[in-house]
Specification:
alpha+beta; globular; 402 residues; 15 strands
Length: 402
């Protein structure tokens, strides 16, 4: 295994990770375009206890440091190094300093004060955008907020209704709206863009893996993409409420209020349901605490039905592309190392599972979640993968079912 290049934190912790898992990832078979994820604006940091990779798998997959175009502290470190399979010393995970209570549990992130935008008063009481934002804040994610709705929104609504003993339907009835409206925060708020919000560089992501491998990093393609990810919304929604407005530092814009969606309840197991294309965070009693739309498996790489566990969470990983594990690759495709960044094929969060070559991660195309095939992995929106990565702990149960 080659030694990684990374900025190491002084406060090191052990985190179990099967390096082999990072050679397999989601890709759209029709286009052979790799998928990715992005990190939360405040990046968590993890490194191996001794600052070095431990031999055990030839893939050499590791996490790199901060990549161009990635949100977080400029020049900071956000990384996880691999630990050999079966090393029980790696089954521990720390929260970043200041995010844990006396028992070592992560505290809920405070939701910053929000000022309702003028457009908030114009939203219809039963608008789809309003429904999507309320569901997102309740941790029953409709996926990308687009104001249009669809399958993912209906599934989120049904799960929310079941979780609150409400009548399940394709649209919210009076009782459902009453429950949703217990959340009285505005739907659209004002946000003044910071330098970090709009910082680049920005450049197009190559379509071919071999061209990706030549890049120093895989940043956002545009400031519109970056801001859309920050607020869990299709860039068209941001543009609709900010016509003609340049996305630059110091500019105040109207955005969906999703700050509280970034911190999940503490569950004890993850359940992936293939038939409904959803991932749920549950407690010991099976109560659904959160639900997200996902893309799961394909004919060549089906979802591995059964009981598994979380090995660890990698942040800013290098993707070790192996054409034998990706459907639709050309016969002459070669193995390659793809640099980190928001458009890295495995994104900036990889939740590694005990099933070899399988993990949970994000995508640069959130509108396709739940609608296209993957190469066996569980693909989520970037922001959902980040939120789940904060509560996914080593040895957490992962159940995959049809």
């Amino acid at each position: 295994m080659t030694r990684p290049t990374t900025n190491l934190l002084a406060r090191a912790v052990m985190c179990a990770l099967l390096p082999a898992a990072l050679v397999a990832c989601d890709a759209d078979p029709a286009t052979n375009a790799a998928t990715s994820a992005v990190v939360d604006p405040v990046a968590d940091a993890r490194v191996a206890g001794d600052g070095q990779p431990i031999a055990g798998d030839a893939s050499g997959a590791v996490a790199a440091g901060q990549a161009p175009g990635m949100p977080g502290t400029p020049g900071g470190s956000s990384s996880t190094l691999p630990v050999a399979p079966g090393d029980t010393a790696g089954n521990a995970q720390d929260a970043p300093e200041g995010d844990a209570d006396a028992d070592g549990e992560e505290d809920a992130e405070p939701v910053p004060p929000a000022k309702a935008a003028a457009a908030d008063a114009d939203l219809a009481d039963d608008s789809t955008l309003r429904l999507q934002v309320l569901l997102e804040r309740a941790h029953f994610s409709p996926g990308e907020i687009d104001g249009k709705g669809g399958t993912n929104t209906r599934r989120a609504l049904a799960a929310y209704q079941r979780a609150h003993d409400l009548t399940v339907g394709d649209s919210p009835d009076e009782a459902t709206w009453a429950k949703l409206n217990e959340d009285t925060a505005p739907i659209l708020v004002e946000h003044t863009l910071s330098q970090d919000d709009v910082a680049g560089p920005f450049r197009d992501t190559p379509a071919k893996v071999e061209e990706m491998a030549k890049q120093e990093g895989l940043p956002y393609e545009s400031v519109e993409e970056k801001v859309g990810e920050l607020f869990h919304a299709n860039p068209a929604v941001i543009a609709e409420f900010n016509p003609g407005v340049e996305l630059k530092a110091g500019q105040t814009i109207t955005v969906p209020h999703v700050a509280s969606a970034k911190t999940l309840p503490k569950g004890t197991r993850i359940v992936v349901d293939e038939s409904d294309s959803v991932l749920q965070l549950q407690d010991d009693a099976g109560k659904v605490l959160a639900q997200f739309p996902v893309t799961t498996g394909s004919a060549q790489f089906p979802l591995p039905i059964g009981d598994w566990k979380v090995n660890g969470v990698a942040r800013n990983p290098v993707w070790h592309f192996d054409p034998e594990l990706i459907a639709g690759t050309s016969a002459d495709a070669q193995k390659a190392e793809i640099p980190p960044g928001p458009n890295n094929p495995v994104g900036t969060i990889w939740i590694d599972l005990t099933k070899e070559h399988y993990g949970i991660h994000g995508t640069p195309e959130p509108a396709k979640i739940g609608k296209t095939a993957s190469n066996g992995c569980i693909r989520m929106t970037n922001w959902s993968a980040v939120a789940l990565g904060k509560v996914a702990k080593p040895q957490m149960a992962v159940v995959m079912q049809k």
